[in-house]
Write a structure and sequence with these properties.
Length: about 130
């Protein structure tokens, strides 16, 4: 009998040069979103400049409803300038845009959805550079 360890669907969380990065793979559950949101809160609180979020969601397949609620609440995180999300699957694009629209009430930043990682990264880098100067 083999014990299979479930890989975390939100990986490679990092913060450097004003950019908070994460890669999403597969289905995102509430616990995954909570881990991401807490890491974002910590980075944003410690950053001397507004944070730019960059999410590589090209391999994400689904955001659970309760995870969407966590992402909605995370949109209220202070000291966040903007978010850039890269998606390549139509369903993931729709889910990302839906989460962004549902977050409008208390959000501190806009979320931009891109169909390629290169576009999202370019946008995030330009936004981070704008606050560094």
């Amino acid at each position: 009998m083999t014990n299979e360890i479930k890989a975390m669907p939100i990986r490679d969380i990092s913060f450097a040069n004003g950019i908070f990065f994460a890669r999403e793979i597969g289905k995102i559950e509430k616990a995954d979103a909570e881990q991401w949101a807490e890491a974002l809160r910590q980075c944003a609180a410690a950053s001397p400049v507004p944070v730019v979020i960059l999410v590589d969601a090209r391999e994400m397949t689904l955001i659970a409803a309760d995870a969407s609620k966590v992402f909605n609440k995370a949109a209220e995180t202070p000291n966040v300038r903007v978010a850039a999300v890269a998606t390549s699957r139509p369903l993931a694009t729709v889910m990302s845009r839906t989460v962004a629209m549902m977050s409008r009430v208390g959000q501190t930043h806009d979320t931009h959805v891109f169909t390629s990682y290169e576009e999202a990264e370019r946008f995030a880098l330009s936004q981070a550079a704008a606050v560094q100067t």
